Amino acid sequence: MMSSLAIQMQGVTKIFKGKKAVDNLDLKIERGSVTALLGPNGAGKTTIISMMLGLMNPTSGNIRLLGGDPRTRAIRGRIGAMLQDTSVIDNLKVGETINLFRSYYTQPLALEQLLLLSGLKEEQGIMASALSGGQQRRLGFALAMAGNPEILFLDEPTVGMDVRSRILFWDTVEGMASRGKTVLLTTHHLEEADQVAGRIVVVQQGQCIADGTPSSIKALASGRTISFTVGEEVTEEQLQGVPGISGIEWKGRRARLYSSDTDLLMRTLIEYSIPMQDIEIQSGGLNEAFQRLLQQDYKGIM
Ligand SMILES: Nc1ncnc2c1ncn2[C@@H]1O[C@H](COP(=O)(O)OP(=O)(O)OP(=O)(O)O)[C@@H](O)[C@H]1O
Ligand SMILES: [Mg+2]
């Protein structure tokens, strides 16, 4: 049976010279989804992607792509990647570079289509080394797409792209997702992840510290929570029926609710006659660096 999972990581750890870059990570990515790995510099995003691509072996743990081993030719032929550090091949024109990559695959996309997808139609005859930084990123995208991959890995793809290129780029990625492709991308920007991804996995020090829909991650990033103690008569299901809650954590009979608007949520809880004792409204709940990382971007989208 075909696995519904595009990517599966189980207990994956990567240690560099005694330092853990990825720490016992479990991650399952569904086919046809767009997932963003979000995290600060050094969080482990590129290391995670390199291991998924089979470019680097994990110190321990297991990785499957499309149900197979990422280091095999059969699986490699079905994936495409736009890496963080890419360099162009000297003395090749844009069109020639794309054709070279097309030749690695049994069923490549047409050159014309790749030029269109990457917005490089007018540049096809110039030397790849003469492209601007942002154009080189777009060439990287064309190369990643050359084999018409089932899974596309994008490591900080929009760095160096201007606003217009970014918008076009994300439109293209969205179009691919709607055609059943799986996309895994990394970014530092919550707003970008929010625009394009259906799921955001927040990585810090090689661990997943939050995983959910963009709206739940935004609520976490806003850092506001309401905590209170309830009696046995209040059930988890009852709280889940209250609108405006993006996450619930329990410690014994004490519930902590995450919300992007705690004032409104408080009024709603009272309306729903939830009997709350020892109510506290606090900011924070996730660790501080995550707060700092995300709050900066968060201001931008409000
Ligand atoms: N080849 C390597 N040798 C030694 N240490 C490495 C190597 N590659 C990565 N690291 C370390 O592993 C950690 C994770 O790095 P990684 O590049 O995966 O982070 P990242 O989340 O991609 O960061 P950025 O947002 O800056 O791209 C860092 O502490 C980094 O210094
Ligand atoms: Mg990186």
From TrEMBL:
Molecular function as annotated in GO: ATP binding
The species this protein was found in: Paenibacillus shirakamiensis
Would you tell me the protein name for this molecule?
ABC-2 type transport system ATP-binding protein
Keywords (alphabetical) are: ATP-binding, Nucleotide-binding, Transport
Extract the Pfam families matched here: ABC_tran (PF00005)
UniProt keyword ATP-binding, yes or no = yes
Its lineage reads:
Bacteria, Bacillati, Bacillota, Bacilli, Bacillales
Q: Which residues form the ABC transporter domain?
A: 7-230
Family matches, as PANTHER family: ABC TRANSPORTER ATP-BINDING PROTEIN
The answer to keyword ATP-binding applying to this record is: yes
